[in-house]
Every structure is written in structure tokens, then in C-alpha cells.
Amino acid sequence: MHNTEAYSISVLSLDDVAAMSNIEKQSHTHPWTEAGLADCFSPLYRAIGVMQQGELLGFAIVQQIIDEATLLDICVAPAYQGQGLGLLLIRHILSEAKQAQAVLMMLEVRESNTSAKGLYEKVGFSESGRRKNYYQTSDGNEDAILMDKAL
Predict the structure, then answer these.
(1) Residue 132 CB coordination number (10 Å)
(2) CATH code: domain of residue 98
């Protein structure tokens, strides 16, 4: 892990959607669309990014309704993966959600995404259920693993 002190966390805006979309396309087999990302800029959502010298390297989107927060997306540009930026983002969103009186953070992850599952388990998430055959894959479908963490 590299020194994460060289990075800053910023609240993102609609102006960041193109950069977010670029990271999505590089990082996910089924990336969100720019329109889908743009829809996450309303009062129920928080979008934060990890920046280095003004460049967006990764981001997270959280929706909070009353005391339940859901991590909808977390994404780090491939060139910066494995450097602790995902961990930096997730710790930040957990802290923010707790400050906003959330008592539970939920998420879902593709069964095949072992690196993401490992990150979530590292910060205390545990499997709470499954959605069978939820995600399409090139050769069929795979389960969505539901995970949550009490805050």
C-alpha cells in the first residue's frame, strides 16, 4: 500500500460525471452510464472522490434514506488499484454515514468480485443474503452477494 496522505477526498459534482464515467468504463464489465451517474446528484445521494493534484482517481456513491445507507458504487481507476484508495474511500463513506445518523450500511457485489468482497470484509461487512442470478455475465448469470455492516 502506498502513502495515502498524498490523496484528498472531495465531494463530487455534476462537473465530475465525465471523469467518473471514464473510470467506470475502465474498471467495470458493466459500467454505469453517464446518465445513471448524473442521476446520483440529488439530496438523497453523496458522491465523493479521491483526488491527486486535481485528478479524479476513484469515487464512491452512497444513498442514505433515514438511518440506512447503501453503497451504490465504488470504483478506482485500474492504474491506481491496489494502493489503498478503495479502503480510503470506504472508510470515509462509513464515517460520513455514521455522522449522518445511519445505523446500517448495505451493498451488493458480484459473486466473482473477490477483491471487492475482500475489501468489504476487511472493514467489517458480512454477507446478509443473495440475489440468485442477478448479474448477467458473458456466459450466463451470477449471484449478487448482499452485505451489510452496523455503524
Answers:
(1) 8
(2) 3.40.630.30
Query: Counting Cβ atoms within 10 Å, is residue 63 exposed (0-12), middle (13-18) or buried (19+)?
Result: middle
Domain residue limits at 65: 4-106
Residues 50, 34: Cα–Cα separation, whole Å: 19
Residue 113 in marked binding region:
yes
Active site residues: 108, 120
* pLDDT in the model for residue 4: 57
Question: Which residues are bridge partners to 110 per DSSP?
Answer: 144
| Closest CA relative to residue 87, chosen from 114, 62, 120 | 120
Q: Is the pTM of this model over 0.70?
A: yes
